[in-house]
Design goal:
Elements lengths: L3 E6 L5 E6 L7 H7 L18 E4 L10 H9 L7 E3 L12 E5 L4
Parallel strand pairs: 1-5
Antiparallel strand pairs: 1-2, 3-4, 3-5
The structure holds FE2/S2 (inorganic) cluster (FES).
The site of FE2/S2 (inorganic) cluster has 15 residues, from loops.
């Protein structure tokens, strides 16, 4: 499987072009942390903290949100219609070219 391109826009508006492996069961939160971007991922990817919240800025088709993700976003701050939990977006070839903007820290 190939690596994919992921663009992250940080909270200052800077673009970061990341390369994500699709064969390591990684998600966007973990990829951001690997690149030392300011994503806390406090719950370790369990959809229980929302510190990995980001906004989808590309027209990348993503899987439906799980009930756990929707419940967490229900309680989070700065939520928009494009909000997603980074830890619930798994790196796969389907999301190559995705653009995400980090949500403000709550
Ligand atoms: S890391 Fe906690 S909700 Fe994503």
């Amino acid at each position: 499987m190939a690596d994919i391109n992921v663009t992250i826009i940080d909270r200052e508006g800077n673009l970061h072009e990341l390369i994500g492996p699709t064969d390591m069961s990684m998600n966007i939160m973990e990829l951001c942390k690997a690149y030392e971007l300011p994503v806390l991922g406090e719950c370790g990817g369990m959809a229980m903290c929302a510190t990995c919240q980001c906004y989808l800025e590309s027209d990348t088709p993503l899987d439906e949100q799980s009930d756990a993700e929707l419940d967490m976003l229900d309680q989070a701050f700065f939520v928009k219609s494009t909000s997603r939990l980074g830890c619930q977006i798994h790196l796969s070839e389907e999301i190559d070219g995705i653009v995400l903007r980090l949500a403000p820290e709550a």
